[in-house]
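Hey L., structure's done. Input below.
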Amino acid sequence: MSLTKLNNQSLTAVTSAGLPSGTVLQVIQDIETAAGSESLNIGVFSAAILSATITPFSSSSKILVFCSLHLSTGVQTAGAAALLKRGSTAIGLGDAFGSGRQATGGGMGAGVSNRLISNISMTVLDTPSTTSAITYTAHGGHGFNSSQDLYWNREQRTTENASHSRVSSTLTLMEIAG
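Output:
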């Protein structure tokens, strides 16, 4: 039987350095299935709702961050916003404008019910340039003009009914070879 080689490496010696650029090297995921809430002032983001730590194999790797965050507010007219962070640094922010806050994603919170769930999906290709462990977190906020409750993974109604759903939120990290 002949020996198969990948990029001039034997199968027992394959490393991330021998794989082509764009190869997925590892995948890490955090999933939050429980409902929760936090009272927030305007312009303030919640504590981490989701958190995942990845240790890149190479400093030239990129981290592809996928997040699906399900938020609702305690008032019909308050939209939801979401923020992704690498450590303490916000990533994927929209441009600054006046006194408005910057966020990574947002959704409508207005509607006929304050239980309207916004699915805020965010995707960021990050370049951390390190081989040290990195923690990514997802946070939520609201757009109401005073202190208000922010909810995640909340059911659509207060009474249990077969037509009502409770959702989960996910944060997925993929290391991509540089």
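The domain at 18-157+164-176 is CATH 2.60.120.1340 (Jelly Rolls). The chain has a mean pLDDT of 81.

-- N.
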